[in-house]
Amino acid sequence: MQERIKAAALSVLARHGFSGLTLERVCAEAQVPKATFYRRWDNPTACVIEGFLELWSEVEFENKGDAAQDLEVFAHRLIDLYSHPVLGPCSVAMQTESRVNREVGASQNTSALQRRARNAGALQQALNLMPAPPALSAELILNVINGVARNVRSLNWPVSDEDLRLLIQSLLTPAQP
Questions:
Q1: 96, 74 contact by CB (below 8 A)
Q2: Which residues of 81-95 are buried (b: 16+ CB within 10 A; e: fewer)?
Q3: Neighbours of 43 (CB within 10 A)
Q4: What Rg do the C-alpha atoms of the chain give, in angstroms?
């Protein structure tokens, strides 16, 4: 029952944003009475936060020994995640709302910082295996890859596989003496 309610809350958020995230819409979509909702959550925002953080797992960077290929796989997984029909729009809504709603901001920031630290650490290990380290830090490389992935979904700016490979090669270019 709780999973159905969280899925309904996320679906409502994806379609209507936070301004349309109402208890009535969530309960109607989940086909539950308000009393059932209130047994677990105080408001739809709390339900959305819980559901989103359970499902949103920004892709983990996996170091398999080839930094360029591993970054390409990572980028495609991010693009797929941001393009998800429910989670993609919810991500944008959560980020926007986090600027004005402390409840949303605090929960999202904590989770994002933990994922970011894991991904930066794994990428740094991959970069350390390269014959010549790139000019850019692991964190900056992740920023660029994440930005491209978000733009593919949010702004509908497609990127070809070839362009993605060229971008990754550029990001991994060693510093010039």
A1: no
A2: bbeeebbbbbbbbbe
A3: 15
A4: 19
Spell out the per-residue pLDDT of the chain, length 177, in tens: 999 999 999 999 999 999 999 999 999 999 999 999 999 999 999 999 999 988 887 678 999 989 999 999 999 999 988 888 998 899 889 988 988 998 888 887 887 888 889 999 999 999 999 999 999 999 999 999 999 998 887 788 889 999 999 999 999 999 887
Residue 45, token pair as written in the block: 């925002």
Here the tokens at position 124 are 């740094």
Q: CA-CA distance, 95 to 93, in Å (whole number)?
A: 5
